[in-house]
């Protein structure tokens, strides 16, 4: 501020004008710093939230993968067990997304919905008498490698 005062005095401004300019400049600097710090704090909180989301979503995707492809033999499940397994895997995939959706970019949301849609397409409405077809089970079994690749894509999108 002393440099500003000296510059204004050099231009021959009235001392009252110098005082007013220096005060307004000081207030402007203060509020600018305050706004920048507030923005930095918001960004830090958003980064922490996204970091928490990435961890939860990654954990959920791995649990869903294990539930579908490691914990059970899909082809040996009864229709009721098959539906239950799909519902549990789908719930695992969607829970972190549902919780953090407001903070996420569209590419991440779209990717998780794509994974959800693939798993959800094999569910039958439990109120209906439709049976789980062997074709549906085989198709879900063949999705295993794609599921692994989708997890890797999520890692890259969320990085």
Task: Describe the protein's architecture and organization.
With 159 residues, the chain is mostly helical. The protein is 79% helix and 0% strand. The protein has 6 helices and no strands. α4 runs antiparallel to α6 (144-158). The longest helix has 55 residues, at 15-69.
Q: Radius of gyration, rounded?
A: 29 Å
Poorly predicted ranges: none
Strand/helix succession: HHHHHH
Strand residues, percent: under 5%
Q: Given the structure, what is the number of helices?
A: 6
Sum this structure up briefly:
The protein is 79% helix and 0% strand. With 159 residues, it is mainly α.
Draw up the topology in text:
Elements: H1 2-10, H2 15-69, H3 79-100, H4 106-120, H5 134-142, H6 144-158
Write a concise keyword list for the protein shown above.
159 residues; mainly alpha; rod-shaped
């Amino acid at each position: 501020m002393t440099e500003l005062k000296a510059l204004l005095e050099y231009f021959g401004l009235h001392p009252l004008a110098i005082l007013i300019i220096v005060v307004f400049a000081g207030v402007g600097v203060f509020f600018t710093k305050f706004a920048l710090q507030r923005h930095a704090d918001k960004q830090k909180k958003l980064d922490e939230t996204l970091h928490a989301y990435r961890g939860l979503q990654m954990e959920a995707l791995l649990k869903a993968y294990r539930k579908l492809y490691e914990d059970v033999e899909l082809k040996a499940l009864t229709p009721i067990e098959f539906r239950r397994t799909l519902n549990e895997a789908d719930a695992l995939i969607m829970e972190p997304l549902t919780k953090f959706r407001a903070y996420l970019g569209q590419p991440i949301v779209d990717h998780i919905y794509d994974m959800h849609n693939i798993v959800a397409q094999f569910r039958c409405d439990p109120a209906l008498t439709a049976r789980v077809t062997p074709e549906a089970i085989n198709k879900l079994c063949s999705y295993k490698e794609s599921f692994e690749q989708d997890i890797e894509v999520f890692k890259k999108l969320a990085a």
